[in-house]
Amino acid sequence: MCAMKNPVRQTVLLNRLPVRQLHLLRQIGRLADERYVSVYLVGGVVRDLLLKRENWDLDLTVEGNGIAFARQVADRYGAGLAVFERFATARLTFPDGLKMDIATTRRESYAQPAVLPTVQPASIEEDLYRRDFTINAMAMQLNPGQFGRLLDAYGGQRDLRARTIRVLHAGSFQDDPTRIFRAIRFEQRFGFRLERTTLRLLAQAASTNLIQQLSGPRLQNEILLLFAEHDPVRAIARLAQLKLLRFLHRRLCYTKTVKRVVTAAPKALAWWARRFQDSVIDRPIVYLMALSSESSPDVVAAMIRRLALSRVQAENMSAGGSRVDRALKRLTNKGTVRPSQVYRLLADLSDEALVLLLAKQVDMKRGVRLSLLKRHLVAYVKNKAVKTALTGRDLQAMGLQPGPQYKTILGKLLDARIDGMITTEADERALAHRLLKKAVLVVREK
Ligand code: ATP
Question: pTM (2 decimals)?
């Protein structure tokens, strides 16, 4: 095991934290001294302090019994506590909502590649050695005498300066293939490069079937985290370049068309967010839909299964193909489309599918049709709030017999409202009477 080479005291770094967090960490350091344990801030937050990036995910690790220490912290501050024994970690939620993870320093051993490891208590050096990349393998001690001491045994600062992502040992990707996606995530987020040997090891691991052995939820987690990044377009291109898309489906290709739709997605998302501020979009799913937008329904269905997507996510993915294409074609063709027809074309598409529809048109770069489509979308979202004044009860009171006519007549009333042909309840009643008469005639004729 590598000895601690660089125990620099950098209280200054911790001063970059908000006052509330800094104050709490000092108090926790004092509590650790009282309990004769060493406590450290560790991982991504230390990396981001060095990079001067905001990250208030407080991950702490304790040399000693982390869970027992977490209980003491929870007691002292009245924080909520959730314990995950298997991973020797606990999550605290303080009364003001602040969250903190406290773990026991540990080593991990992998009985088989790609499965979750078994963990055993270990020193802080070993704990740092089990981590994914050097830049994520640094810690800062919090005990008062050592407050702010930076532990960087594996060259994390060097790699931050050199802007490289480097694994700690040659078996890293084999132990845990999710690190392949994590490597791309950090590389793209920070604009770093994969260090040469790391890139070779990654390519080697990617050429085997290791990733296939990952469970659906674990693969889903990595893919959706990657697609939730600020700029997933580059990350998707990198996945394609490293031939990793095949793990979503062997026939998933990053064709020119797919690339154009994916590249258009940020613009479509930005327009949607500006226009409809109340709509909460599942951005990662939009990128996944864009990526599979040219795939056949059976490929999409297999991707849904492989990634163990939820029902809602799966519905979005399935709508992303021909249904979006059909609506797009109709809405951007020559000839007028009535607002009620727009409504019917879009009514069962989710907001995510509508963003995809827009991305497909952004991609076509036909300005006139793009603005037409945007107008349709704005009108559609407005029209979603339109309701008929009459209900089924009113039709019943007018003497309509039970049957499918209810849906048809109410649908026609809604269409007429949306198209502005009628505006008042009285108009609706008059139209309902005319439609009822027709319905009765039709029934009689039969
Ligand atoms: P982000 O900024 O995206 O939250 P992070 O570095 O904080 O990134 P987390 O997933 O929150 O990442 O994990 C916290 C720390 O735990 C990491 O910095 C790393 O030290 C360690 N870690 C997480 N996942 C792995 C893994 N798969 N293998 C090894 N170490 C990991």
Answer: 0.88
